Amino acid sequence: EPPTSEPVTTRFPEGFLWGSATASYQVEGAVTEDGRTPSIWDTFSHTPGKVQDGDTGDVADDHYHRVREDVALMRDLGLRSYRFSVAWPRITPHVTADALGDVEQRGLDFYAGLVDELMAAGIAPAVTLYHWDLPQALEDAGGWTDRRTAERFGEYAAVVARALGDRVRTFITLNEPWCAAYLGYAAGVHAPGRTEPASALAAVHHLNLAHGLAARAVREHAPDAEVAVTLNLGWFRAEDPTSDADVDAARRVDGLQNRVFLGPMLHGEYPSDVLEDTCEVTDWSFVRVGDADVIRQPLDAVGLNYYSPTVVRHWTGVGQKQSADGHGDGASPWVACDDVEFLELPGPRTEMGWSIDPRGMSELLLRLSREAPGVDLYVTENGMAAPDVVGDDGVVHDADRTAYLHDHLAAVLDAVEGGAPVKGYFVWSLLDNFEWAYGYSKRFGVVHVDYETQARTPKDSARWYSRVAAGNELLPTA
Ligand code: GBH
């Protein structure tokens, strides 16, 4: 069936939270200010050859100095929530593997000021505690391969929850642990740039543990806030659903990306097929008795980040392997998946080369609603990279992005129709920003940023999104 563009209803549930999202390293800049120490992304981006055009987050959107302006922008667009992340190296800049170290009040003050600014504008803060900017000192001691990183993360989470918990509606422990573990430790395309499959699986476990410890800390120190986690779940389909080998390939990648997190977080155990699939890479001896109970914490909400679909098939080992994940030649994020092939799909794509198919969004929301009954759902990220098409009026006319948002919001409505308790949607991103390994070459913002002047200009998509939010109703794109 074709992508859904005509849902049964165009109205969103009462109280639906319309938001936008960013992440600290992608927007803040000010990397040496107010006591902040380097994160793994400072190190990585300053290593030649790691980020396109040698771009770094040194200045980024200068959000650190432009918070008032940016909150005013959100208010003018009528957005009701802002999902941002806290940079760990601003809060405990001298953390070591064995001790959290002193709390940097200036770092906390920055985020407290942002929260106050948001509250005054009627915008609910949703705080991500980890969006990939690990303090470099922790990486030097092993990073996410070392369980002490998870222990320190739990302590850091308690500090932030105590400081902001009276005003923050939602705390999100981790953003996309899949990326942090596999892109950072197996594919090496994200910081810290390691290409060690066994380390990636150790990172998976310690990120799960970090989630559990942080969820517990937030519950204790911010009892009125929602506790959530954000996962980039994949919608995986077998090229030939009648082929056992293709179906098995889809099961394998579903295990590595989805169930290796959902299993322990929601059900208290790792899926046995994932442990078996990866047994040649690691014996999972980093998992200790009691970890499962720590990881499975009651959650108020799960956030889904969704961008694109994936189709796989069994690779026979003959001919050139296709790769839709861009990692065909170098190290792969897909640990123990040498015989899985990621297909280039026909049809529309974004500037990232990612295929567009909103059905994955509704499928994954419905899956979450079945797997986590009683847990609220958010779309914590969704959006597209598109080249600037600047009109004579100086405004970016991003009709492709508006269409993408429209079709994915229609998919949210489908999921709601099917019973998924989706409570809000955060467009990625509020602003054009530092797109990780792609630097500033890819623009995801609904608001254009001129990196010379730091001028912000809402694109057509922002205007459209603003009207949708105001009416709580999906509108035609024209
Ligand atoms: C998110 O990552 C991040 O949370 C955010 O910081 C980032 O800016 C944003 O998305 C845009 O990238 O490689 O063709 O198989 C998303 C990372 C994107 C990784 C989709 C896996 C699969 C498509 N994911 N990708 S493909």
Please give a structural write-up.
This is Beta-glucosidase. It catalyses: Hydrolysis of terminal, non-reducing beta-D-glucosyl residues with release of beta-D-glucose. It comes from Pseudokineococcus basanitobsidens. This protein is α/β, with parallel strands linked by helices and 478 residues long. Helices cover 37% and strands 13% of the residues. It contains 15 helices and 13 strands. Strands 1-2-3-4-5-7-10-11 form an 8-stranded parallel β-barrel, surrounded by 5 helices. Strands 6-8-9 form a 3-stranded mixed β-sheet, with helices on one face. Strands 12-13 form a two-stranded antiparallel sheet. Strand 10 (376-381), helix 14 (399-417) and strand 11 form a beta-alpha-beta unit. Helix 7 packs parallel to helix 9, helix 13 (359-371) runs parallel beside helix 14 and helix 14 (399-417) runs parallel beside helix 15 (460-471). The radius of gyration is 21 Å and the shape is globular. Ligand GBH binds at residues 23, 26, 175-176, 179, 232, 305, 307-308, 310, 324-326, 354, 381, 428, 435, 444. Residues 23, 26, 175-176, 179, 232, 305, 307-308, 310, 324-326, 354, 381, 428, 435, 444 line the site of ligand GBH.
